From TrEMBL:
This is Mannosyl-oligosaccharide glucosidase. SUPFAM superfamilies: Six-hairpin glycosidases. Cleaves the distal alpha 1,2-linked glucose residue from the Glc(3)Man(9)GlcNAc(2) oligosaccharide precursor. Its main location: endoplasmic reticulum. One of its GO terms (molecular function) is Glc3Man9GlcNAc2 oligosaccharide glucosidase activity. One of its GO terms (cellular component) is endoplasmic reticulum membrane. It comes from Clunio marinus. Residues 886-1377 form the Glycosyl hydrolase family 63 C-terminal domain. The keyword Transport does not apply. Residues 65-125, 143-178, 550-589 are annotated as: Disordered.
Amino acid sequence: MNFQRSQSKVWFGSQQNSIYDNFYSLPTYYNEKKSLQSITEQHEESLSPENKTNELKRSMMIWGNRKSPSSHSHKSQDSGFSDVETSPTLGTNKKNISTTSDADANERSPSASSRAATPPTVIRRPSKIPIYEEIASVKRLSFSAPSSPNELEESNFEMISPSKSNDSSRSSCRSCKLKRSRVITKNSRLPSLKSLNGSSNDSFTSMPYNNETVYFGDPDMMEEKSLLNSSIDFPAGTSTPKMKSRSLMLENLSKLLPPNRIYKNHLFNGNFASVQSWIDGLQFGVSNEVMSTLQSKSIEMENAILTPTLAYKMIKNLQTKVYLLEKEFEDVENLGNDSILLPSIQGLTDVILDFVVQQEPKKIYYKQCPKYYKKISENLYSIREMVTDLKRLAGKIDLDDLEDFPLNDDLQLIKRYFLITVQVMFKLLISVIADNIEHAKSDIFEINSGFEILRDIIVDQQENAKQETKEAISCLAHITGPWQRSSESNFKELKDYVEDYIEGVTKIVETTESSQTMLICIAVLNNLSRLEPTAVYSLISHQSIYKVRNRKQPHRDENNSNSNSKQSSASSLNHSDKNTNSSKNTSPTRKYVSLSSWYIAIGVASIAVVSYFVYFGYLETRVNTPLDEKKIVQKNPDPEKYWGSYRPHTYFGLKTRDPHSMVVGLMWYFPNKLRPNGDGIRHWCKLEDNLQKYGWTQHDGKNFGFQEIHDGNFLIETSFIKFYTGKYGGEWTARVDVKPKNASILEPMSLIWYAALDEKTSGSIKPTYDSMYGIDGVTKGLGNFKINLHNTKGKILRQSFLSALSPSLQSLRETVLTNLRLASDKTTKEKFIILSGETLDETTKPNFVALQVNVDLPFTLDITFQSVSNMSAFAGDDLITLPVGDDYTKLLSKKQKEFRKKFTETFHLEAKGYEEDEIKIAEATLSNMLGSVGYFYGASKVQSVHTNGPVPYWRAPLLTAVPSRSFFPRGFLWDEGFHGLLISPWDIDMELDIISHWFDLINIEGWIPREQILGVEALARVPEQFVIQHNSNGNPPTFFLTLKHLLDKYPEEMLKNTRIGILDKLYPRLNAWFTWFNTTQRGELLGTYRWRGRDASSITELNPKTLTSGLDDFPRASHPNDNERHIDLRCWIAFASGVMTQLGNLLGKNTEKYEETFNYLTDNQLLHEQHFSSKTKTFADYGLHTDSVVLKRPPPPPPVKEKNPYEQPTIPDMIRVSFAHPETRFVDTTFGYVNLFPFLLQIIDAQHPSFGMILKKMRDPELLWTNHGLRSLAKNSPLYMKRNTEHDPPYWRGQIWININYLALKSLYHYMRIEGPYADQAKEIYQDLRKNVVSNVIKQYKLTGYIWEQYNDETGKGSGCYPFTGWSALFVTIMAEKY
């Protein structure tokens, strides 16, 4: 579905208390989009043939400069939408509202100003729907001011009706003639404006631009109103005057040239006659010489050879051209029947012909591969013929004749031939590179036996089969090379023999005397380490790298070495012939050695150069290449999971688990509170809406949900229940119930229920009417369906609908805002706001349908979704009745009781002594997390050191909970691990589904982007600087927390077939993820680790942030460098290796390497050596650090002599100033969450004295202890509650965070049950800390209605964003003690 971007904007009045107050006291509006107005039939007839030709040429030139779909299409003008979205500049200066003078007429003209006016909306025939018969007229809410003060007085909201029309109304600039065939606007070019106006004046006054009035009712009752009372006399057309030739010689020369010569470079065409003749003369004079030179060069190229280096360059060049051409194809395909379609097709054909011409000379290189050469030649010839025919046809037909000429079919055929040809070219070039690197055949390795044979040869290494061993090594280097790796590669069995290959190759490295063999062995080890992550462990265990580095320089070649040794022995035994033999044999041997060395050097250099280019290109693709393992997520989800509240960023929205799903949702507003910029329309969850409270109070994650929204004096309750029938995901009923809290305070309210299609959704929707509005539609995933509204309780004042094209899903609210109209009742003259109805012509399908009801409160609206395709299969043509009204109320009550029962059985809060209101808060917290699970689809923007810029990740789905519906409505990697600790006790399968989606996003390197911004709606909520994800940066691997929780608490449940199958598919992905951490984040010293992503060059940060650690601005070493050691990351790797051991043992895997890693990293003695400060008796980071840093503002720049007096002085940002040189040491003056990680992840021994020291410091009120939980940074730390920059408030520098408090309580719960000297102390701290955390979260919820991102360490008040039912929701598990 192609979206058209909206340009129509609606001004709802000044900052008045009501939208109805002083409606016309509003600023004049100018749009920033240039608009090409359509030319009227009269103007077309008045154009001369010469002018018509010039105009056609100009229209054809549009195509060459076009970067995006045109805004000048019939679709854009008909609908009031264009392709470029701009932000309106809304002024408030009342002096703009004035009569336009002659002097500024040209400035006010949209055609003469860069701020052109809003494109008009087509005037439609009056609606036949009965609901509009009561409306006398409907006025489009316009931005322009009245053309005169008199008109302002006369208007005053009085709508022009047939009975009141008079001469003054006929001349009003706001009226227009109702004409179906074509819209005539102020910018239309007219042959004679005098004839229209009946005026003889030569000058005209500009009319302020205004979108037309839209009328509903009987068309016969409407009187014609003149279009204009004044305008600007636009010229009918322009053309360059023709100059007579000044040179008879050039004039005669031009006769020798072909008539109407057109050059491919448009700069050579359309010049003055004298200049054109001169250009033609130059072309005529040099063409023969040029052709002769080109022919001689082509003869020289007949014997050209396609080398690997040249093939690589040709591949890069071909990639660029193909990418550009694909974009051109897409642009033309998206035009539909646009007015510039034909010129665009002609432009595209020129580009294709240029491509064919450029490829013709290169065919000489393809002759060395006759099979490919013939195919490429034939295809290029076919493309040339088809493109020439298409260009000729596009130049002859008119736009109205497109239905008779299948240009689109021809274009698709050309595109298909083009892609086939390019594919053949790529195959040829890649085969040249591969064949020149190694001629060994790898066909036998497509089956297991081939790899076994290769393993036997390399491992056995028979003395009498050295040559066979060398060939095996060479073959292994070839098949493991980067040029052989792709998604289609069938070498998965190779990974089973990696351990044996490395063992055998390492032995060869120790014994070989051949430099060539040594080089190939090194290549094999390198290839294997990149092909299979576990190869790193094999390299370490066999000390392969060490043995390569310490290997003595081998001889040049084994055979020559043996012969030389024999010569030496013979000469030593033959002393009598020593001088004679040496004089005869030395010279030829040296010459042979010298020549052989040159041959080897050249060969190795050639291989190295080609390998470099190929391997570098391969590295570029690694960042967005999926891991070559089976996908975990099934394409066809369980029907029970198909529909859901998967739009957490909206107050109430539903969608399916389709990549391009239809979305439905709720908007509402109070007309008296509506503001010019749309404030007052509720749709997306926003902090700016300042709602007293909102969130799901009951949600089971699958079948139903119930939500409360408190908006001022009104309580809005939304709910839904799903039903399952057939293959299309079933049906549902939703309810919106609005009640006033204070019945004495009432005001009108408008509810909007809508359905919208994604730009790539295959299907259609349309409005229907049967006592109430509805929506009919069909999509690939849903089949045929119906959406109906039901008035369950209350009075509907008005109904209206909108059928339109929305630019994208992120612009639905703006599309509604643009199409709101002010109307009045025939009898009561009451004014109200409605939607504008149908905005599209019959040939354009809408992607957005909205249904509005203006209601008196209280009011209850039920919405039903019925799958006609499902019902037809079960009940023929009779649709099954879905529950509404009382039936729905009863069913909802039943679902709520079932939810309460399951919650009680899962968390047992009553048994732990909690009150009813506290339990309801816990229920609401869990429900809001389950209701915040969203389904996203799209591609992240990623970047690696090997790419020149950001590149798209592969498009994929993601099911994930979001931390905050209002502020972080997207997936975060380290947050999601904490979310699973609450979701898994409620629904194990739901959590495994979420984990599966996340690990299907892992790439071939073992990296997962830490922030998932998928889809246009998610992208709209993210600052630009956070969009690009770098593959060197990770996040804490918190999914290992969830997995350990599942393995420890539900061992029997995890052994079920489906669940154990998911774990089996998950294991190799976890393996790759762990390996990525263990290799890319390791430190300089063995056993140490360092978070990547810190900016060592930052001068505006007091302490450069470590966003990758998840603890953002927690103080680390003040001057980042490669020698840093981060204690928290080391503990995460140790914890992860233990979980991998546990999971591997469950699945029957070899876990020896993980056990060794776990034992090594949990060695308390080594941990103390690398991270324990004897000075402060704390675990700490290590690095280049000083505490003597402050933020200071540098002096302002010197004043400029000729400075604008109105220009504000530039104030430079504060920068960091160090008062002492940093030293390499422990960062032990800081104490906080990071220093607790050996305790938080249970790495420290329960009997170790340092454990007792940790407990003592935790309990110290001057350090971390508060009455509300553990603060993130000790009060005596140098950066406690200090800003990191002048613009960034403290984040992890003192506030209380629930996720870390959860880890602390989980560890205390663990240690207090282990016998030891500190068990009682741990139990005491556990009980006090648990009480403090739970009581404060509940207290703040009762005060504010929300769970918060963080809490103030002094007062306990919530801070940050809200509602934050991400990891802050873990207080529910703390209440239940489910660790």
